[in-house]
Specification:
- By secondary structure, the protein is an alpha/beta fold.
- Helices cover 45% and strands 11% of the residues.
- The chain has 24 helices and eleven strands.
- The longest helix has 20 residues.
Length: 529
C-alpha cells in the first residue's frame, strides 16, 4: 500500500460510525507547529519514526551547530569549572552512585542521598530530563537529604551509565521504575516523584499505572501540550534529542553546545523568543551535564560524547501500541489524528472478534492522567511560555486529572523554562514545601495495596519451624567450635581421603611409572616418540 492509496483510504473510509462521529466532531490536527518549523531549518522535516532516523536527525543538527564558534569564553569556563569542582568534591563526597540489575530489564545506575534504616522515612524519587542523568540533580538531592528525606535519582534506560536497552517507550520506562521501587523495598510507603521534563512525563504515567505506589507528584520543566494534548502529540517533545549523536572535542565544547541559543530554541516550548533571547548559564549547565557525557580515548583522537543512546526514539504508550498493530502507518504529531486511530482501532477489534471499547475511553486524553489520584503540584517558570498560557493549559491539565486530586499550580518568580537552573534556591524551597505537604497523605496510606505479591515481586517463602528451640538453632548465631572439635573434624577428613585413595597394585605401579617419566624430560619425550 503506497502513500496515495493510504490517503484515499483515509478519505473514503467506510467507518462513519459512533467512533468516527466522535473523532470528526473534534478539530482536526493543527498546521505544523513552531517547533516543527524550527527543526525544518536544519533539514529535519518530520519526526523520527525509528532509532536510525533519530540518529540521522541528530547528526544533521549536530553537524550544523558544530560550525558555530565557541561562545563560552575562557573566563566563564574557568569560573564554571572551579565552582562545579568545589561542589563535586565538597558536597558530594563520598560518592553516592550505585548500580541495580533489574530482574527483567536493564541495569540502572542510580544515586542515593540520606541513606537510613528508619522505616518511617519518606522516599523521594528524582527523575531527570531528556539527555541528562540522575547525578545532574545532586544539588536538589543533597538539599532534600539534609531535611531528613531519603532521595533516589536513577538514570533512565539509554541515559547516563544505565544499559542501552530497547524499546524506549512509556511502558518500558514505567516498568523500570516499578521494578526499581520493588527491588529496593521502597514500596512500604508511597514514594514522592519529582520529575523534570521527560521525568515529569514518566512520573505522571507511573502514578496513573501504579497509584498505590505514588504519594505525590511534583512536575517541573514540562510542556503542557505533552501532557494534555491528543494521543498523537503526547510525549512528542521527547521523541529524540538534537545532541544524542553529537561528539565534541572537549567538555567545554559540550557545555557551549548545551548553552547554544539555537539548541535551546529547538528544545523550548515557547512559541516566541523570550526577551533577551534563549540563554543558559554555563556553570549550572556543567553541573547538570557532568554525568551525561563521557570521554572516549583512542590512539587516533580524544573526544567527548554523550552517554545517551544515539538511537533513542521515544513513543508514548498509545503510539507504541498502534505502531505494533499497524507497522506501515508512520505516526507523527501532524498526521496522527483521532480519526485515523478510531478507524484502525475499530478495524483491529472487528478482525479479532474482540469487543470494541468505548470511543471516549480509547482515544480521549484522560485515559492515563485520570487514574492519578495522588496530590499533584505543577511548577512553572513565571517567564516561560507555559506560564504565559497558564489559564488554558493548566485548566486543561487539571481537567485531565481525577476530580478528587489535590492539585495546585505554582509559579517560580523570575524563572524561565528551566526552573532549577534559573532560580535554584527558590525552586528547592518550593520542592521542599511540596514534599512536606505530602507527608500527611503518605503516613495515612493503606499498606494493604502495596504487598509485594500484588506488585509483581518475587517473594521467597519464609522457613517454618516446629518449635522455638528449632527456630533459635536455625536463626541464632552459633558458638565457635572448640579445639577438640576441630581436631576431630580434621581426623575424619584425613580418614575420608585415605579411604578414597585406595587403589590396586597395578594402578599404583602405572601411576608411579608415568610420574617418573614425566620427571625425566629426555626419557619422557623418548617414550612418547
Amino acid at each position: 500500500m503506497n502513500a496515495d492509496e493510504l490517503e484515499s483510504l483515509f478519505q473514503a473510509s467506510p467507518c462513519e460510525t459512533e467512533t468516527t462521529a466522535v473523532a470528526s466532531s473534534r478539530p482536526r490536527s493543527p498546521p505544523p507547529s513552531f517547533r516543527a518549523t524550527r527543526f525544518a531549518r536544519f533539514g529535519v522535516l518530520a519526526a523520527p519514526a525509528s532509532g536510525e532516523e533519530a540518529r540521522a536527525a541528530s547528526e544533521t543538527i549536530s553537524s550544523a551547530l558544530a560550525r558555530r564558534p565557541l561562545r563560552v569564553t575562557a573566563t566563564e569556563w574557568g569560573a564554571a569549572l572551579a565552582k562545579a569542582e568545589s561542589f563535586w568534591h565538597g558536597v558530594l563526597r563520598p560518592r553516592a552512585e550505585k548500580f541495580l540489575s533489574l530482574p527483567v530489564g536493564p541495569r540502572l545506575r542510580y544515586h542515593v542521598w540520606g541513606e537510613t534504616d528508619d522505616p518511617d522515612v519518606v522516599d523521594v524519587m528524582l527523575l531527570h530530563d531528556l539527555g541528562e542523568a540522575g547525578g545532574g540533580l545532586s544539588d536538589l538531592g543533597v538539599a532534600l537529604a539534609r531535611r531528613g528525606y531519603r532521595v533516589w535519582a536513577p538514570d533512565f534506560r539509554g541515559h547516563g551509565d544505565s544499559d542501552r536497552a530497547r524499546p524506549y517507550d512509556e511502558n518500558a520506562l514505567v516498568e523500570d521504575l516499578r521494578a526499581f521501587v520493588v527491588e529496593l523495598d521502597l514500596y512500604r510507603r508511597p514514594v514522592v516523584l519529582v520529575g523534570f521534563g521527560l521525568g515529569a512525563f514518566v512520573a505522571l504515567a507511573f502514578a496513573a499505572t501504579h497509584p498505590q505506589l505514588a504519594g505525590g507528584l511534583v512536575l517541573l520543566d514540562v510542556d503542557l501540550a505533552d501532557l494534555t494534548g491528543p494521543a498523537g502529540a503526547r510525549g512528542a517533545r521527547y521523541r529524540f534529542h538534537p545532541s544524542q549523536a553529537a561528539t565534541f572535542p572537549d567538555v567545554r565544547a559540550a557545555v557551549d553546545r548545551a548553552c547554544a541559543p539555537e539548541l535551546l530554541e529547538l528544545l523550548s516550548a515557547d512559541a516566541e523568543t523570550p526577551r533577551g533571547g534563549f540563554r543558559r548559564d554555563a556553570t549550572r549547565a556543567l553541573q547538570r551535564l557532568r554525568w551525561a557525557v563521557r570521554d572516549e580515548v583512542s590512539p587516533a583522537k580524544h573526544q567527548v560524547v554523550t552517554k545517551m543512546d544515539d538511537s533513542w526514539c521515544f513513543f508514548a504508550a498509545h503510539d507504541a501500541k498502534v505502531r505494533r498493530r499497524f507497522p506501515f502507518l508512520v505516526l507523527t504529531p501532524h498526521d496522527s489524528t483521532d480519526r485515523k486511530r478510531a478507524y484502525y482501532e475499530r478495524r483491529y477489534y472487528k478482525s479479532s472478534n474482540r469487543r470494541f471499547p468505548s470511543p471516549r475511553r480509547s482515544i480521549h486524553k484522560k485515559r492515563f492522567a485520570s487514574r492519578a489520584r495522588c496530590p499533584t503540584r505543577l511548577v512553572l517558570g513565571a517567564r516561560s511560555g507555559a506560564a504565559a498560557a497558564a489559564e488554558d493549559g493548566v485548566a486543561s491539565f487539571r481537567s485531565s486529572l481525577h476530580e478528587r486530586t489535590d492539585f495546585a499550580s505554582i509559579a517560580v518568580p523570575g524563572a524561565g523554562a528551566r526552573c532549577l537552573e534559573d532560580r535554584p534556591r527558590e525552586t528547592r524551597d518550593i520542592v521542599l514545601d511540596c514534599v512536606l505537604a505530602f507527608e500527611g497523605p503518605i503516613a495515612t496510606a493503606d499498606p494493604a495495596s502495596r504487598r509485594p505479591e500484588l506488585l509483581g515481586a518475587s517473594v521467597r517463602a519464609l522457613p517454618s519451624f516446629d518449635s522455638v528451640e528449632q527456630a533459635k538453632k536455625f536463626l541464632c548465631a552459633r558458638a565457635p567450635p572448640s579445639a577438640a572439635a576441630i581436631e576431630e573434624a580434621l581426623r575424619e577428613a584425613r580418614q575420608g581421603d585415605e579411604a578414597d585413595s585406595e587403589e590396586d597394585e597395578e594402578t599404583r605401579a602405572a601411576r608411579v611409572r608415568t610420574t617418573a617419566l614425566a620427571k625425566d624430560d629426555a626419557g619422557y619425550f623418548g617414550f612418547v616418540g
